[in-house]
Fold this protein.
Amino acid sequence: MSDRKNVDHIESVKYTDIESVLGEEFGERFRRYRADYHKSLNYDKNGYVPDFPLTVSIELVNRCNLNCVMCYTINHKDPKATFELPDIERLMAECRDNNLPAAVVGMGSEALIYKGVRDALANVRKAGVMDVFLGTNGVLLTEDLSEFLVEQRIARLEISLDAATPETYLKIRRKDELKRIEANIEKLLAVRKRLGSRLPVIRLCFCVQKYNIHEQEAFLKKWQGKVDYIDFQEMVDFGNVSEFRATDGVLDARPAGGAKPAKTYCAYPFNSLHVWSNGDVTPCCTFFGKALVMGNVKRQTLTDIWNGDKMREVRRQLQSGDVNPVCYACLTQRETETFEMAKKHSHKPAEANTAGPSPLAAKAGVAGG
């Protein structure tokens, strides 16, 4: 088997050689980081675990301005939690000391409703992080903020869109905001061009589901050659996350007899840590992770959590296939059939208008893809 360069739950249509763009921007350090990242994707063959995570993800506040059908919206109804700037500064000081190469700002909520989002991003950049991802739904992406992102050399902007028409967008995200967001993206493109920058690299996300699969080709056609890449993502059913959380992760959805899931591959615990707005740290950025807490950065360092017994045990389970109930549920509750249908249709529109490397290379999740 050749080395794994991708994972299979995201299908990426690329119009830009992203590795080359960011390699030219950040130099040899970026290229070393990407080599380590791809090495981490092959943990099942080489056992590689870096001394410190390659990516740290941060949820700034557990609130959102949309109410998407595929989201675990209960997260936005929990007691309000905010990751305050002093906590970010302390976290980033540790990341700076450990030469962290990549960070994601924005996980299960909307980063741009956080009043100090610019200060948060500036702190991440001051810590020497190169590959900074900002995830957003794009509603609050103003022209002024776009200028800030370009000036800060934020590496990647990830905008979740999921629809080509206002009607479908309303069904999925429950607010009529598509035209506003599309205008915001056009302004960002204009700002980037005006300031003569290739950053941020712009990624649009399309979570494949029954409501939007018929618009996949229209979505590609609308954004083809405008943005840098489009990701079609496999949807996950978060239906029993609350039960896991209520039982501290011991709800067991595994079949009798201890059968293993067909696939137990997951690279997140081998390359990244994910910090929620209350300080909890989990081995992945999905909502299932909220029932699999490894520690809390308000009481522990990332280094101690990364090297701790809980993280070691999760890695051992994934390598052996004998996964815990939470990981089992996450691995088996993906909408694979619909996603496989979408993958078959993502090839043709891109091939006619793609320069550089292969237009179809699956992105390896949020953590550094």
User: Anything to note?
Assistant: The first strand starts at residue 10 and ends at 14.
